[in-house]
Amino acid sequence: xxxxxxxxxxxxxxxxxxxxxxIADAIRAARPEAELLAVGTAAGMETRLVPAAxxxxxxxxxxPLPRTLSGDLARLPVxxxxxxxxxxxxxxxxxxxxxxxxGGYVCTPLYLAARRRxxxxxxxxxxxTAGLANRVGARFAxxxxxxxxxxxxxxxxxxxxxxxxxIAGLDRTAARTAARARFGIAPDARLLAVTGGxxxxxxxxxxxxxxLPALAAAGxxxxxxxxxxxxxxxxxxxxxxxxxxTQIEYVDGMADLYAAADLLVARAGAGTVSEVAAVGLPAVFxxxxxxxxxxxxxxxxxxxxxxxxxxxxxxxxxxxxxARVPTLLHDDARLAGMAAAAADRGIRxxxxxxxxxxxxxxxxxxxxxxxxxxxxx
Length: 377
Description:
By secondary structure, this protein is α/β, with parallel strands linked by helices. The protein has two domains: 5-163 and 348-371, 3-Layer(aba) Sandwich (Rossmann fold); 168-344, Glycogen Phosphorylase B (Rossmann fold, 3-Layer(aba) Sandwich), CATH 3.40.50.2000. 45% of the residues lie in helices and 16% in strands. It has 14 helices and 15 strands. A seven-stranded parallel β-sheet has the order 3-2-1-4-5-6-7, sandwiched between helices. α1 (14-30) links the parallel β1 (5-9) and β2 (35-40). The protein starts with a strand and ends in a 10-residue tail after the last helix. Mean pLDDT is 92; it is low at 371-377. Pathway: Cell wall biogenesis; peptidoglycan biosynthesis. Residues 192-351 form the Glycosyl transferase family 28 C-terminal domain. UDP-N-acetyl-alpha-D-glucosamine binds at residues 13-15, 127, 198, 295.
């Protein structure tokens, strides 16, 4: 049987690209001979992240769905038709045996092109509330995996969130000393890690800086990931420093941050929530205050289990941090209970599960009906 050819679609944000790459790596590990091609747009993070991970990338036009009556809405059919043609050309050139989609603008045209060609579609949906592309594609998909049990899609099954092997395999206790040494944190510190993601979160940053005197007085050490270009300054051009405060703009490899922290404060993106559960890290989630509320829904599974706290963005103030965080960080029994509750709900093998679903669909396509050979390219 010839090697399967698999096209993987998704992009725009790290929330789409990261699970795509985790699944691609799991496919490559299971079947090194498989031919893999990622598809994204020219404007997304995939243009940097996919080649850096050693995978090939093709691009098609970005076709967002206009939210209001406008000229963009009138032009949508033409733009979508063009993107479907581009996606079809990619599938034909790759002689695709299966399409994996993780959502995003690129996936709707890719799903439509695959359906026209009879190429099986496998979908992963990261959020509790499924995106439009995956709601469309799930109707005719061969298999659908979800990161959360509450996600409602046709053919859906819970598989968890595909994540990097360094996080999925993390032993926080074993990695703690080395991780803290990387950031210059004392081994016995009560460490609060705060991150708003690679782009940062201005409201989280402001609240934390206002709470620093109270945290220092309570013996809490802070590791603050401010976001690229969002350095906190004590004077113009002078980075804020202190005996209990360390700031960095970006972390390349979140496993070390998770291993170093006693408590994490973060937004509630699906990837972050799933990674926190997988590694068993107590957390305070501050969902984005805009959008469709999906971040609060993502966090709910851990909040309801007692593994995390949820604080609305407007309630996450310096006063809230000073009143709540030191008490929590000095309560070893509660932290241990939160960590255990998170780990009980963590799923570490989603990448391999999704790889098996994709390869099964591709192998069936290669064999053809009634086990016939799929032929040579």
